[in-house]
Amino acid sequence: MANQEDNAQSLARTVLYQLGVELKARFTSFGGWEMPVQFSGISREHEAVRNAAGMFDISHMGKFTLQGKNLISQLQSLVPSDLSRLQPGQAQYTVLLNPQAGIIDDIIVYYQGEDTTGTQRAFIIVNAATTGKDKAWLLQHLDQNEVQFQDISPEKALIAVQGPKAIKFLQPLVQQDLQPIKAFGHLQATVLGKPAFIARTGYTGEDGFEVMVDRDVAVELWQSLHNAGVIPCGLGARDTLRLEAAMALYGQDIDDTTTPLEAGLGWLVHLDTKGDFIGRAVLEQQKAAGVQRRLVGLQTQGRNIARHGYQILSAGKVVGEVTSGTLSPTLGYPVALAYVPTKLATVGQELEVEIRGKAYPAVVVKRPFYRSKNRVTN
Question: Among 19, 232, 298, 361, who pairs with 336 as Cys (CB 3.0-4.6 Å)?
Fold first, then answer.
């Protein structure tokens, strides 16, 4: 069995790793990567994104390019969302499903349109820990005679610039005007004089951008943003931010045993407007009969934090489990996500969570826990 030192040596590092070391970041293992968990402190980083601007190294995420004359129609069979509605420069958050309608991964499809020959192009961004699995699934189900698939993960870096002042800090480094880009809009751009891909997407619940560039450009971009006053942020703040916005974390809140209807992602399932896709039969059945369990938002009292894996109780019996939980820096009280039986999923339902052997009151509340006033619309 490998020791901890061997494990550390086997972790991948992004091109920005050394900059993190220089900034005295604390690192952790995440999805096979050695990633910064915090720089100046989770609370400060969290507050920077909510009130000004913070930046995250997300270069560990998987990045695929796809092109082909029937690309969108082929992708249609792999996701429950109707991708045919996408216009060039628009993106769709969606999920890859297995035949049981379990979530293989949550992804974003960025549609770039088609050229004069009718060839359609798209980027797909996937989670770091599932990059290999997703790649294999896509290659297995796409007609490789019609679709050209390329994994550009090793050669490209990704930086997320998030917060109400993100555009103020990023715009001086970008040749194109960022203001007209709507939420989930994207474009090919020029950053620091070099080609880049910029999307108005993110994982914080705030306005912001994700910038994909070559590795050497990423180092210059990070340094330029840092010099301008953007706060470097780690996985710790990324987690508290996304949880306040009730955004699912793959491997905790959703996985290949949870369906989008159970996970509160029914808005991704477009049964009425598209044809067959993997997992459709199960989702049709669940929609007709109703799901047995639902992912709900919970609020606990005081500073009693319901952590991942903690049990949910009703009338003294275990009825569910917490998937994610934290003390919300913005709201000042603990919030959590948990799966509970549908009959106990109504807003206002009183439950309990077992914390260190003792049951504490919890109540089902609306999601998201926090909604930014600064977000742009589609």
Answer: 298
Helices (H), 60-127: 71-76
Note the pLDDT tens digit of each residue in 317-354.
Answer: 999 999 999 999 999 999 999 999 999 999 999 999 99
Yes or no: say if 59 and 157 are a contact pair by the CB < 8 Å rule. Answer: yes
CB 367 within 8 A of CB 297: yes
Identify any residues that bridge with 184 across adjacent strands, giving them in sequence order.
Answer: none
Residues 125-170 pLDDT 10s: 999 999 999 999 999 999 999 999 999 999 999 999 999 999 999 9
Residue 235 C-beta-side C-alpha neighbours within 13 Å? 17
Task: List, as one string, the DSSP characters of 3-18.
Answer: -HHHHHHHSB--TTHH
Q: How many other CB atoms are there within 10 angstroms of residue 348's CB atom?
A: 8
What single-letter DSSP state applies at residue 52?
S
Amino acid, res. 128:
A
CA distance 213 to 338: 37
Q: How far apart are CA 128 and CA 203, in angstroms?
A: 14
Pick from 106, 105, 63: nearest CA to 197: 63
Q: 247 by DSSP, 3-state: which? A: coil
Name the token pair of 51: 């009130």
**CA 114 to CA 107: how far, in whole Å?**
21
d(C-alpha 305, C-alpha 308), whole Å: 10
Report the distance separating Cα 90 and Cα 86, nearest Å.
Answer: 6
pTM of the model: 0.95
Distance, in Å, from the CA atom of 38 to the CA atom of 54, rounded to the nearest integer, reads 12
| Helix (H/G/I), strand (E/B), else coil: 37 | strand
Tokens of 37: 């968990």
From 262, 232, 241, 237, select the one nearest 371 (Cα to Cα): 241
Beta bridge partners of 67: 121, 148
